[in-house]
Amino acid sequence: MARGPLPLPISLDPDGPTPLHVQLREGLRAAILDRRLPRGARLPASRVMAADLGCARGTVVLALEQLIAEGYLTARSGSATRVAATLPDDTLPRSDPAQRPAPAVVPSLSRRGARRVATPAPRFMAGPGVPDAFALGRPALDAFPYAVWARLLQAEWRHGPAERPDPRGSPALRAAIAAYLAQARGVVCEADDVIVTAGIRQSLRLLAELLLDPGEAALVEEPGFPGIGLALASAGLRTVPIPVGPGGLAVAGAGPLLQGARLAVVTPAHHYPLGHAMSLENRLDLLAWAEAAAGWIVEDDYDGAYRYAGRPLAPLRALDRGGRVIYAGSFSKLLLPALGLSYLVLPRGLVAPVNRALAEIGPAPPGIGQWALARFIADGHLAGHLRRTRRLYALRQEALVEAARRHAADVVAVAPMEGGMHLIARPGPAWGPTRDDGEAVARLADAGISAVALSAYHAGAPEPGLLLGYAAVPERAIEPAVRRLAETLRPAR
């Protein structure tokens, strides 16, 4: 009598932070390695597994296909999926528990490496387990169309391209990005002008090493995202902070600070973190500077799609007539942080040298998900998601401003912004005996509230305040979180 499939010693958490297919894959792998699923054991059919676990069949198929590719499972046409007779881990050398570990070798670091590890971790970096209220840079995961995304990922696993990844990114994704930008952001480009990267910092290091020599100057916004300066410094550049006012970065009054600079990194549509939009006069001045200096402008349009008063502002790239603007965007803030995909739109003159550099240095950006993202954009899901989240974020911003007015007006002043995904809370009279926003962040963290110190974004004299992200916080959770924030920051009586 044939032996039936074994029951699965696995449960899934649909509300957990880890995708269901990852939970299932890791659960099956652990069960195999722990011998709870013995070698040769027959697994239930994917439809049965999906019903037992309460998930979509595509989730099961995705997990099984990866374990088959890794050698933990075997499957033949017309036959059940089974645990492999020989596991990939069997080829690893077995360790003797009684054997003493080798003594740790103190590495001899380069001067650059020693400086890097001696630098304390910046306060703007959020670690794992950060609560939604009020974490920065986190989109509304409760509004993401997971069913659509899972279907596209499943199709990619089944039919996606199997050739070696293109260091420029998937041709389908680059074409989809070009079409989307032309329609939604007024950026006219072709697929060959687009390269896919693993984030703005990788993009900046690539551009800095290609366009400037070590020791040359790059203009950055003051205040500004510290990761920009760190990426440029890691490429050997000297960063020059330029003050940002209500009209954005202004080179007209920068004078000697511009001496020798040939690169500027700016956020014209929605300055990070203050939220200002760069005025037309300042945009034209910046473009004129780039042409006169034979320099380059990196336009970081990280959340330019989110504008709640009128239409989104046209990018700086749309005004560029000299081919000096490199447009940068990201899908991590628009869709899912785990995607880890960004992109650059290059001026035509930079396409060939950047492609040659990519072919030499690589590596290609993560390949899994690029085909699915291309279909997500081309089928209109990105445009629809942005329309929905634009309305949603406007409501959540309004809820945060109103909750701060009602419950924390004596502690913080929170003013609305015309766009973006965060607001700034500036100290009120009842903030406490100290205006140290770093201390306030630590106290809030103990109370389960995530915030980032505004002073961490200043290279010079710091301005105290808190950055509060609202995009990922449901409206019902905003008011109690603001109450807890106010109670935490008020001085004890």
Summarize the structure.
The chain has helices at residues 20-33, 46-53, 57-70, 111-118, 146-159, 171-184, 200-211, 226-234, 280-292, 348-361, 370-378, 381-407, 437-446, 475-489, and strands at residues 73-74, 82-83, 194-197, 217-222, 238-245, 248-249, 261-266, 296-300, 325-330, 342-345, 412-414, 422-427, 452-453, 466-469. With 493 residues, it is of the alpha/beta class.
Layout: helices, strands, pairs:
Layout lengths: L19 H14 L12 H8 L3 H14 L2 E2 L7 E2 L27 H8 L27 H14 L11 H14 L9 E4 L2 H12 L5 E6 L3 H9 L3 E8 L2 E2 L11 E6 L13 H13 L3 E5 L24 E6 L11 E4 L2 H14 L8 H9 L2 H27 L4 E3 L7 E6 L9 H10 L5 E2 L12 E4 L5 H15 L4
Tell me what the structure shows:
It is a single chain. By secondary structure, the protein is α/β, with parallel strands linked by helices. It contains 14 helices and 14 strands. It has helices at about 20-35, 45-55, 55-70, 110-120, 145-160, 170-185, 200-210, 225-235, 280-290, 350-360, 370-380, 380-405, 435-445, 475-490; strands at about 75, 80-85, 195, 215-220, 240-245, 250, 260-265, 295-300, 325-330, 340-345, 410-415, 420-425, 450-455, 465-470. The chain has an eight-stranded mixed β-sheet, with helices on both faces. Strands 11-12-14-13 form a four-stranded antiparallel β-sheet, covered by helices on one side. It has a two-stranded antiparallel sheet with strand order 1-2. Helix 1 crosses helix 3 (about 55-70) and helix 5 packs across helix 11. The longest helix is centred in the last third of the chain and has 27 residues, at about 380-405.
